[in-house]
Specification:
The structure is a single chain. This protein has 206 residues and is mainly alpha-helical. It contains eleven helices and no strands. Helix 1 packs across helix 4. The longest helix has 27 residues, at 11-37.
């Protein structure tokens, strides 16, 4: 019989969960350091001290600081993608789903994970696929395309090439940081401004 922990997990599941949580902890520490000081200023020794682990333990998880950041950002972005898919599925129709999709995207941009990713990029961390607004949006085209296809089939969105329409809505979403941090709009105000333009441009008969 497979050994299990007190919580009912198998030992393999418990080890995997511990490793995932430790990677997130290390990545969070690395992201904060690099956002504040730049990639070149953060050594593995410094990261080990900040994360509260030994250098040997740190090297068991990641080979370098950039990898720690990349794995953290990827994990957070994947978790966000799952949450958006679930949130959209709860909405009754394509208009409501598009509103929810935009609202969730704006909320992400306003949150600490996205701002940390931008700060890392501005600090000079050369991370392939880092979670900039553009890279973040590129990871979720299927969700938006499905919403647009559903709306067209239901007759509430005018017929159009889904790829082009999704790209244009993505461009509107790229403006969210400027709306939030330059113009001082609230999350609700920024989401409403983007939603009004998006729906106004694709509504059937509009």
């Amino acid at each position: 019989m497979e050994a299990r922990t007190a919580s009912g997990e198998s030992w393999d599941e418990a080890v995997s969960d511990h490793r995932r949580r430790q990677l997130l902890h290390i990545g969070r520490a690395a992201t904060a350091l690099v956002a504040a000081e730049g990639l070149a200023a953060v050594s593995m020794s410094r990261l080990a001290r900040e994360a509260g682990v030994s250098r040997a333990t740190l090297y068991n998880y990641v080979p370098d600081v950039a990898t720690a950041i990349q794995r953290y950002l990827d994990a957070k972005d994947e978790a966000f993608a799952r949450s958006v898919t679930a949130a959209v599925a709860d909405e009754p129709g394509p208009v409501e789903k598009l509103r929810r999709y935009i609202r969730e995207q704006v909320r992400y941009v306003a949150g600490g994970d996205h701002r940390a990713a931008v700060a890392v990029a501005e600090a000079g961390a050369a991370l392939e696929g880092a979670s900039s607004a553009r890279a973040h949006q590129a990871r979720q085209p299927a969700v938006l395309a499905a919403i647009l296809a559903e709306g067209e089939e239901a007759g509430v969105f005018a017929p159009a090439a889904h790829g082009a329409r999704a790209m244009l809505i993505g461009r509107l979403l790229y403006s969210a940081p400027e709306l939030l941090f330059t113009h001082g709009l609230s999350e609700d105000e920024a989401a409403a401004a983007i939603t009004d333009l998006a729906l106004g441009g694709i509504a059937a008969g509009g």
